[in-house]
Each structure stands twice: as C-alpha cells, then as structure tokens.
Amino acid sequence: MKSASHALRAASLVLAGLVAAGCSTNEPKREFKVPQALCGTPVPADALSRLLPESGKRLTAQHTGSLTDGSALCDVKVDGDTVLMISSERIDAGDSARHILQSRLSIQQQKSAEDGSIAYADRAAVSLVKCRGADVEKEDISTLVKLLDPARKNESAVKSMIDGYTTSLKDQHPCRPTS
Q1: pLDDT 10s digits, 126-159
Q2: What is the reported pLDDT for 69?
Q3: Which CA distances in Å does 148 have to 76, 101, 178?
Q4: Which DSSP helix (H) or strand (E) runs through 86?
Q5: Cα–Cα distance between 141 and 169 in angstroms, integer?
Q6: Is 58 left (phi over 0), alpha (psi -120 to 50) or beta?
Q7: Pairing relation of β-strands 71-78 and 59-66?
Q8: How many other CB atoms are found less than 10 A from the CB of residue 98?
Q9: Residue 27 pLDDT
Q10: What's the distance, CA 143 to chain centroid?
C-alpha cells in the first residue's frame, strides 16, 4: 500500500511540475518598447500600451502623406501586422465626429466627449480640430484612430489615445492661415 501511495504522490508532483512549466513558457511576452510618439506626434504611452498586443517582438510606425498637403496616415505594425492606424485629413467645416465614425466605420454604439468634438468606441475614435477665426481658413481637421486585430479592445484607452493625440496635434498649430 505504501508503494502505491508513494507512486501516486510522485506522479502528482511530476504532473504538477509539468503543468507549472507549461504555463510559464506559454505566457505572451512583449519585447518591443511602447513609444512616446507615433509618426512624430506625442501620444499617451499608457493608453497606447493598453491597446497594443500583449506580445510581439518589433513595433514599427510608418508615416505617409502630410497634413499640410491634405491628409496623413500613420500605420503602426507589430511583427509586420498592422494593429493601429491613425489618419488625419482636412475636411470642410461642419461635420460631426459621431457622423464620421458612423459613416466611415459603421460604428453605431459610440460615446462622445469634449463637447462632441470626439466620438469613440472600443476599437476606434474620431476627433475634430475646428479651424475658425479671421486669420485661418475655415475648415476642420479630422483624425481617425482605428484598431485592427491583434490590437486589444479598450474603450477608455481609445478615448485617452484620441484625446492625447488630438491635444498634441493642436499643439502643432495645424490650422492654415488665410492667404
């Protein structure tokens, strides 16, 4: 009886060791550093961190276009997969952030912030910078943040991300002077 009991205990210990070893080696690991800026625009790194995949080796951000010329795109990839896109463009004054988010991405369930200049959901957000005044062209600058798999859904992080990005964009004085 003792030998059967010892054998059972030994088998249990071996099985527990295998389970523990299996769990520790399969945990996702993030090897890339979360940047403080994307394509030259400062972003809230804590919010970005909550949106990026939990694992991956390399993060890259590629910038195309120019807001000066009308539109710009920042394509963020982890290990070659696009996980986040930030696009900004100059648009005619008067559209709403909610309408843009609904018409471009068909997102019906969304929330608003900043007196309606921001609309957001768990995988996307839109903000508007309104250019108004005697010395600037009357237009809006629309910024769209869109998450793609394997990015992580997180409504509060998306809101923080669009809010921080828009604040940084405003600090760059993107409104064009009248000619």
Answers
A1: 999 999 988 888 999 999 999 999 999 999 999 9
A2: 87
A3: 10, 15, 38
A4: strand 81-91
A5: 10
A6: beta
A7: antiparallel
A8: 17
A9: 72
A10: 12
Q: Which residues of the chain have pLDDT under 70?
A: 1-26
The verdict on pTM exceeding 0.85 is no
Helix residue ranges per DSSP H, the chain: 2-25, 45-51, 97-105, 155-171
Distances (CA, A) of 59 to 17, 80, 125, 154: 35, 8, 21, 19
Write down the pLDDT at residue 25.
58
Q: Give me the amino acid identity at 32.
A: F
What pLDDT sits at residue 15?
47
> Residue 95: what pLDDT?
93
Alpha carbons 157 and 111: distance in angstroms, whole number: 13
34 with 152: CB under 8 angstroms? no
The one-letter code for the residue type at 24 is S
What single-letter amino acid sits at 14? V
Closest CA to 147 of 79, 76, 98: 76
Task: Give residue 97's region: left, alpha or beta (phi > 0; psi -120 to 50).
Answer: alpha
Tokens found for residue 94: 């008067």
What is the 8-class DSSP label of residue 115?
G
- Structure token digits, residue 50: 């909550």
Q: Which residues have C-beta within 8 Å of that of residue 39, sequence separation ≥ 6? A: 61, 62, 63, 72, 74, 86
Name the amino acid, one letter, at 128. L
